[in-house]
Amino acid sequence: MEHPEEDRPAGRTGPAGTGGAPAERPRDPGTALELLVHGVGGATPQDMLDDPHTVRIAGDDVAAVFRRADDVRAEHLPAAHRDEPVPEAYVWCNLTSGNGTRALWLLLLPFMVVNLAHWMRPAARDRGRLVRLYGLLVRLAALSLTVLLVAAACEVALDLAAWQCAGTRACADRHSWLGFLSPEASGDGWWSEPGRRLGLAALVPAALTGLLWYLSLRTWSAYESQQPMAHEPEDGGPTAMSRPGFWYGRRLVARLRAAHTAAGLLTVAFAVAHAAARHDRAPGGSEALALLGLLVQAALFAAGAVVVWAVCRRGRTDRRPDDVLDTRLLRLLPLAALLLLALCLVYAGWRRPGWESAGRLPGDMTFGALSLVQGLLVIVLAGVAHALYRSAPDRRAAMRGLAGPAVMMLACALGGVMSGGVAQRVSDWLDGTGASIPGPPVVLTWQAAVIPPLLVLFLGLCCWLARRAWLIARDEQAAVTREFPDETGDPARTRRIANARAMASLTDRGPRIVALTSAATLLLGAGALVGALTTDRTPGEAARGTHAVVHGAAETSQALGSWLIGLGFVLFVTWGRRAYKDASARRTIGILWDVGTFWPRAAHPFAPPCYAERAVPDLTWRIETWTRATGGRLVLSGHSQGSVLAAAAAWQLTPSARGRVALLTYGSPLERLYGRWFPAHFGPDALGALHRDVDCWRNLHRRTDPIGGPVGLSGDRGPEVDRPALKDPLAYGRTESHPLPAPILGHSDYQADPAFAEERRRLLARLRPGVPAPRRTEDPGDGARTGTRPSAG
């Protein structure tokens, strides 16, 4: 919405960068407002406002804006608030860690990680086709993860339970709940047919698919269906986050939800139909049923091609709110898959005299094909990411633009570990002595065998990090001594400060850890796939003819990997159950979601919901309506992840409102984490444009902070944004102003530093009306800002 000329800040007559004569600011400053946005882990309004008596003035039980009880009518008494701003807290922690059931979102971790890979695309110039290809490859990898999850459920329910255990008397006798499915118990009854047992077991993975569909639909309605404030798109901006449809992608999520639901149902249908068709094609099988089986499988492959087309056909659109649904596709695709599943159940349940369940179902082909497809997608994505990076090199980008492929590789590995862990644990539970049933597919056993080498590599990386931390801490001890020259020496105190700085610096080694881990995972996974497909034997059996040491190492790695992969899944479930009962554990898991679910669901519809699609519109509406109604000054104050939300909200503001907002960030990962891992949206160009668009911006950081850091804008923009690193601790020893030992604050309590109040006061003074702001001029050659303005400091 366009505002009248007299309401625009000085130096602006329209969208940022359009030039023109400066306009006068409002004469009456009115009430100044400080809108506080907390970071990861959550906070209460009482803690944020430092007052036990708070009132909710907008919002609901999920996310709301609070004020002190004494400040509810502050706009009606502007004279009482001319020196200090009115604090207002936006509390959004219940979006991610509000109740215990959301802790079970931990089981959706692979989906969340592959969704992150979509947003880690390198910044690019004039490479629209490569950008679209990058998104397509990630969406295909996300589809393979859905198929992998449902295939693992089919492996457990159909193969291990209904086919192997129920078809083996020794196993069925140990588990009474499977007794009615055993041919020995039913004789020539209904359940004597293996196809009917498979049809009954197919209800488990089909129900899992339906549950994922329901959760995706429900979370969209609860979290992501908030309409953003309408404004004109800024097509020429350095980031898509300023576009009106960035935080509202209803059409794509609905389309992907229909496609992934259909893919899950088709996976179940294929598992049931393939077992029956294999029997019909064998000698002695019915020719009519064999022909029917071919037709059913052809229909399944055709439906699968339609699902892949639906995923490939449309990507993300953010130039406008994407709310026009593909109604026919949404209805017909899951319904067609459900009808095909019913047809497959009828086909498999047809009576076939002499059909007995023996050995394993053909799961090696499915899991091997999924592993091969995922590996190829990672390799191709790496090539596309490298080409994008070369078009606009950014030395600060993590892994030289290859962060997306590396993270996608880790997502596929997580999916494999969780799938193999479920199959291995259920097999051990059903088998008991280990001699009654064949167990899970061989390819899962090979994949389990690579877990110990990966753990050895990971331990080696941890040792390298520990050595780096020790070396940095040794150097920092001398730096601490120089910074506090007049203090009494205390070796223990010096070591604690130096160790805090050293541990904080390890965050910058994250890209190297991810690169080595993902590369090793890709190579070891390829070796496991080759071993499984070429030998059709477990690692121990394949090495039986070699040297005894090699044979023993292969068997040990296989057994240890199977145990570890199952233990990992049990820990996942246990952690989720503990978080359901323990609020502290729930908050810890909530921190993971605070970081991982900031981005919209652009690749996987079953990922945990994006809280920013609720939080960013909340902040945008609050800022726009308050500044429009009062014409007052507003400081948008964000800590940690709250600073990322604040920046995202500032990009969504209309240019006139954005120019009346000052930005104060502290402990901010905007450049240190988001700028490096998500360079297309938080790179130097995007952050520099944000600095030019908001009226003024200051950033506070500490050397002991493992998350926050300087914004690091190049040229004349850097000193205006970053204040020199704050002292931490505030005093080395006991002083008159600090009679008790000052704590090492690290990432917390930035408001306790006097610099916080000082910077906030200077930002308010910069926003005060009546002080003419220098006009910004545009260089006709490259569009860069040549004029300067006074620093907020």
Automatic annotation (TrEMBL):
Residues 1-10 have a biased composition (Basic and acidic residues). The keyword Transmembrane applies. The chain crosses the membrane at residues 133-153, 198-217, 258-277, 289-311, 332-350, 370-389, 401-423, 443-466, 513-533, 560-577. Coiled coil: none annotated. The keyword Membrane applies. Residues 1-29, 765-793 are annotated as: Disordered. InterPro entries: AB_hydrolase_fold. Keywords: Membrane, Transmembrane, Transmembrane helix. This is Lipase (Class 3).
